[in-house]
Design a protein that fits this description.
about 150 residues, alpha+beta, Aminopeptidase, seven-stranded mixed beta sheet, 3 helices, about 20% helix, globular
Length: about 150
């Protein structure tokens, strides 16, 4: 199963994308199943057809979250992380699911994106992020509810 932004003529932009990327300036990310993986929740992150990272999405029922997101630091333009989050959130919402932070430690980059989503009115702060290790790693709970 591939996840792509719906850019067909006349399609309405998702409310999440309207708030975060109204002018469409973020990179055009796509997700595809990794043919080497048996587990379908592991996806390749593509930009212009080239792999720039991978992710896995976990959760069940009405909740989804990233289990892992890994993006190349050198092969990607600025904004690919946020664009990846937007695409995953949009796909969760198609299933009527809430997208939220994982219950594991989050990196500084992940916290930065969640804070952007909250500032834009997309994410709701359930529990504010707190640094819990010297690495630094964080814990907290943010959610993006369906509309």
């Amino acid at each position: 199963m591939e996840f792509k932004r719906d850019e067909s003529n006349g399609s309405k932009m998702s409310w999440v994308r309207e708030l975060v990327d109204p002018d469409g300036s973020l990179p055009k990310i796509e997700l595809e199943d990794d043919p080497r993986q048996k587990e379908k929740h592991i996806k390749n992150i593509l930009l212009d057809g080239q792999k720039i990272g991978e992710l896995s999405i976990g959760g069940s029922g009405k909740f989804r979250h990233f289990e892992k997101v890994s993006l190349s630091e050198t092969d990607r333009p600025k904004g690919c992380g946020l664009a990846t989050y937007l695409l995953a959130i949009e796909e969760a919402q198609k299933d009527g699911a809430v997208f939220e932070t994982t219950s594991w430690y989050l990196t500084e980059d992940s916290v930065k994106i969640w804070k952007i989503l909250a500032e834009k009115g997309v994410a709701t702060v359930v529990d504010e992020f707190v640094q819990v290790t010297d690495v630094p790693q964080f814990m907290g709970k943010y959610r993006v509810y369906t509309k």
